[in-house]
Amino acid sequence: MQPPQPTFRIAISASFTADPIRPILEFWGRQLNSAFDVQFAPYNQIEQTLLDPGSVFGQNHHGVNVVLCRYEDLGQFETWDDAALRQLELNARHLCGALREAPARLSSPLIFCLCPSSPGFSDGAGVRELFVQSLDGVPGLQFIDSAEIASLYPVENWYDAEGERLGHIPFTEQWFAALGTGVVRRAHALFMPPYKVIAVDCDNTLWKGICGEDGPAVVELDPARRCLHQFLLDQRESGMILSLASKNNEQDVFDTFAAHPEFPLQLRHFTAWRLNWDSKAANLVSMAAELNVGLDTIIFVDDNPKECAEVAGGAPEALPIALPEDISGLPEFLRHVWAFDHPVITEEDRQRSAMMTQSLEFGREIRRAASLEEFIAGLNLRVDFQPLDLERIGRVAQLTQRTNQFNATGIRRGESEIQGMLSAPGFRCYTAEVSDRFGEYGLVGVLMVQTRIVELYVDTFLLSCRALGRGVEHRMLSAIAEEALDHGIYTVTVPFRPTAKNLPARQFLDSIAFGRKFEEDGQVVYRFPATDLQALRWKPGPQETVAPKPAARAGSGRRFVEFARIARELRTPAQLIAAMRKEAQASFQAPIAQDALSTDVQRKLAGIWSELLQKPVQASSANFFDMGGHSLLAVLLLMRVKEEFGVELSVDDVYSGTLTLGDLAEAIESRQLGAMDPDEYQALLAEIEGLSDDEVRALLEREQQGE
After folding, report:
1. Domains of the chain by start residue, with CATH
2. pLDDT of 630-662, one tens digit each?
3. Hey, which bits of 17-62 come out as E strands?
4. What is the pTM of this model?
5. pLDDT greater than 80 at residue 690
6. N or C end: fewer C-beta atoms under 10 angstroms in the chain?
């Protein structure tokens, strides 16, 4: 049994009051089946938080560290003259320096979000470029621009001048919802076990029409499906393998592509296909085995919800995505399926389809070879084993996230964690780039080692499955043994921690005859004499196999996420806030006596109080501050009242130790009646109640006559 994962922490340091982002972060934690521990650094102390090892950033060992920064907040000047603007730019450059250096010290990835300044302040054309140029390519750091968030989650009224004035809360609730969603989406992409394959249906998915009935030449590509073609091509460029899974006669599909050379997607873009009348679930299982990937790395796209349901039942590890009924909404739908996000794209990603084709050809050649030994001898294998080039640290981190079968420990690491390890004494990282007569495979192997007193300890030993079966793993251990001997070390220690999928790594370690192994702390530890390991070479054995093994059906521990529902129902800030409100109302369903909250204003206000105070409010006599209210919540209350009732209250209206819900509701009602003071309102009511019926009729007649 795998030990439980620690709670995922989102640590935030902001140049403004960012507390209103907490509800949306916690909301997304519940949607993603992963409770978030949200922690805030002291107000407007970004550089201190980045530098202090005892800060919420320094103490965050499982999660993400998030910096939310407005350019204008980096300086406090009475007038924004040229000297002030020059100092502001200098402060920004200082911050960039701290951001560049921080990931090496932090255990968790760092996300920097450049938020918009107030409408009256001009950031200038070069501000974004300043941060992009300074932070681009920094290992362990992700950059998010507010324009990216606005593109995905547009908000018309994003700035709140009153919130800015009262508590340096510059954004509306909707923009905080957009900002928080953008942050969570990026963090989720960083930690999500990656999907590798998109299997897509043909009829009424890739094209409009049924090629077997309408005819290959008759099917057409409408604007929405043309967008799908381009989207899939972009995904392929980002490293996804494209395949076809459709109930069709194979030749009908081939003829359709041949009849439509104008289609952006062509048959050559697909690495594998299952075009038959078998169940799509069975076809996906077969396809996973052919491509040597886990079934849980496949996304299946189909226009038919019934087919998606069949896949969910027959191949539950795969992710089925049903296209929206209104096909015109397909482009926006696709932009909000988080499973397609790629926070880091490497050169190996861009070449993955070509490399997979090489791997499949490799398998076919094995089956045609006269003998295994002859085949390996003729590979012309080249393994370039070198110390890590820091520019490739993103690829190394990606391999720790993606590699399952040949991964001796199964440890997943981000860029910042790897960079931090390499800064510690005795840690080194080596990479293996591989090629053979089938082509270039790129950086596919990683060895991270620690020099100890009497041994070279292998912290990480992994090799991409597309390079298995060539003897690369033998070359890697041989090379690391040479490194050990060069440093006067005569023992190489390799730990193995079992996972659901890494049996091939154990089989390889067990095959090395001269090693000693023993169990320790739930893992198997192998010790090899470096002099013997230096001479390790591949040779055929009775159980040796070169062809990649079919991917295991065992689960990877991936948390179930309703990606399609998110793309349908939670893709706008308005939808998000409505869902949050509904969820909050369901959480505070303690019985409320209707006579206790006698007016509509009181009931709506009770809902707002319940959300802010995180407890049910049941009576008009409830006291805001006695129930846990404080100054920040009071400011948020003013902002919510303005949004809900269209009424602007002053600070004095809420900053009172005797404030009750009934009192505040009365103040709101009086403003709605014409900004009348509550005392004046009560006096007018008393005056009206003192009039006789004849006096009331006379008063109404005069009003009607315009007197």
Report:
1. 8-191 (3.40.50.1110), 197-342 (3.40.50.1000), 348-533 (3.40.630.30), 588-676 (1.10.1200.10)
2. 777 788 888 888 888 888 887 777 776 677 888
3. 36-40
4. 0.71
5. no
6. N
